[in-house]
Amino acid sequence: MAQTLLEQLRTMTIVVADTGDIQAIERLKPRDATTNPSLITAAAQMPQYQEIVDQTLLEARTEKGKQASAEEVASLAFERLAVAFGKKILQIIPGRVSTEVDARLSYDTEATIAKGRYLISEYEKAGVSRDRILIKIAATWEGIRAAEVLEKEGIHCNLTLLFGLHQAIACAEAGVTLISPFVGRILDWYKKKTGRDSFPAPEDPGVLSVTRIYNYYKTFGHQTEVMGASFRNMGEIVELAGCDLLTISPALLDELESNQGELVRKLSPDLADAEPIEKIEMNREVFDQMHQDDPMASEKLTEGIEGFSKALESLELLLKNRLAQLEGQEALSHAADDIFHVYDLDGDGFITREEWAGSDAVFDALDSNRDGKITPAEMAAGLGAAYHHHLVGV
Question: EF-hand domain: from which residue to which, for each copy (predicted)?
Answer without folding.
Answer: 354-389
